[in-house]
Amino acid sequence: MKFIIGQISHETNTFAVDKTTKHTFQLWEWKSGQEIIDSHRRVRDYLGGMIDRAEELNIEIIPTLSAMAYPSGLITQETYKELKEELIQRIINEEADAICLNLHGAGVVEGIEDMEGDLLCEVRKVVGYSIPIICTLDLHANLTETMVKEADALLGVNFYPHIDSYERGNEAIDIAVKIVKKEIKPVMSMKKLPLIIPTSTSNLSPVKDINQICWNWEAQPVVIDCTFFHGFPYTDTSINGVSVLTITNNNCDLANQITKDVSQKVWEMREHFFLDIPSPREGIEQALAFNGYPVVINETSDNPGGGTPGDGTYLLEAMLSMNLEKACFGYVFDQEVALAAHKAGVGSFIEVELGGKTDSLHGKPLQIIAYVKSVTDGQFTQSSPMWGGLQVNLGKSARLQVNGVDIIVCSVKSQVLDEQIFLLHGIDVSTYKIVALKSSQHFRAAFEPISKKIITVDSPGLTTMDFTSFKYKNIQRPVYPIDEVKNAAAGLPTA
User: Fold this and answer.
1) Are 434 and 152 in contact, with CB atoms under 8 Å apart?
2) β-strand 60-68 against 2-9: which pairing, if any?
3) CA 162 from centroid of its chain's CA atoms
4) In which region does residue 395 sit, left (phi positive, over 0), alpha (psi from -120 to 50) or beta (all else)?
5) Which pLDDT tens digit goes with each residue over 466-478?
6) What's the rounded Cα separation, in Å, for the pair 232 and 239?
7) Are 486 and 189 in contact (CB under 8 A)?
8) Per-residue pLDDT tens digits for 48-88
9) DSSP string, 127-144
10) pTM for the complete prediction?
């Protein structure tokens, strides 16, 4: 057998001011051919799972295009056109038994709110409907009927942090093999709910409970997959929202029954997704009152993994104003300050404006005089259970010290997934009382085992959990929690 593989992945925050261009993709990945296999083999991500399983089964792999950009604003038409054309050209002349693609599910292009649906339509135009297309998706995908129609199977991760990306890649290959051998005929049933939810970790309720319901259904031999898709709430599109997708082996009635059942459970639990989140100062006070360390404080409102600038200052400003000792912050995206630290050198003092350079929403620049403790190239191998083995390059980076707070500054925007960026700069997080970072949930995969407590804080930002702060114009209304929504409006039983 011969399988085509590829990836075009982007989570688009339509409220972000920065447009996503080819350069944005190239900062992270724009590779083709053998480069893809060399970069992802034995890496615990979607493509790594596809490659390793295909090689294990002696399936010939045809790598096409792998393009992934860090979450940011709308993808420009020019960039998408080039992405689409390159993928299509690399597919069009190949003869293969199946196509396995990793797509995010929340990509938005200027003038196209369903990038993945549009992309699958274009692929179908050149390969037809006789060849199966299996796609892996992020659980923050905003699913559409077009995606369901054009793909044979859509496989979402179940966990957040996405520690099962590799397994979904494995599964994509396994399902493709069974389709080619005519052992299964997948049918899909999707239900969209008038509901948007904040980023919610999967090892706690209610996500933990809903996943278990899905897995109970998956125990039936005829059920191929059942996934609760959280959706990505920071996209102002008509397709935004929570959904449930069930795949069975040629049993439409059962697929519809399962999707309806799980959707009902999600709807009944909707209020449990919304928690009271402390402000940065309140979170720090809670950390100081806790007897133990390290306490991790994550700034969910400026999570670069959701398309924010990564240079917000609300949490760091509170830390500096409270005269903390044995506290560290990882990290602020500020290329200008990182370069200044490199130029001054270790052992120097620099007077700079740190952060707050992208917009005014995430806080103002901080006037600081800092001691340059170390400088690095920002390169390391990711060790997190999520996408472990990935090579990361955050550009010129530095560790600054302001009184009792160590601050890492980097030149490339990213959320913090593990302790490697701290270790690179000589910081052992296990010895600090407070470890602050920018992330919503992905950091948990690496930090839960090594921390005594985790405190999430919220403030104004593009990934705040306060949805009332966004001026939605295109989202389907009514939608909970912005509006009151009755059961009948959700397409669910009223009793």
Assistant:
1) no
2) parallel
3) 8
4) left
5) 999 999 999 999 9
6) 10
7) no
8) 999 999 999 999 999 999 999 999 999 999 999 999 999 99
9) H-SSS-EEEEE-TT----
10) 0.94
